Amino acid sequence: MQPDGFHEVEETVRGVLRDVLGIDAARAATFDQATPLFGALPELDSMAVAGVLTELEDRLGIVIEDDEVDGDMLDTFGALTTFAASKALT
């Protein structure tokens, strides 16, 4: 069971990926917890990561410290959503 607000965070993450990376809504809607991101989405290169993280900070009202950014958090849609929820829902 997900914490209250998790679905909203998930939709925010989906929207950020759609808007920052230029992914169409239908494609973004198919993302689930296991959907691979960094290294699998050509749109999500190292330059785009900064844009995604900045937009997550703005939309969720969170601060992502440099030492929190690693490959694991960007590995899958689920990992990124769980990370964002851990920051936004505490």
From TrEMBL:
Residues 7-88 form the Carrier domain. InterPro entries: ACP-like_sf, PP-bd_ACP. Pfam families: PP-binding. It comes from the Bacteria. This is Acyl carrier protein. It comes from Sphingomonas turrisvirgatae. The lineage of its organism: Bacteria, Pseudomonadati, Pseudomonadota, Alphaproteobacteria, Sphingomonadales.
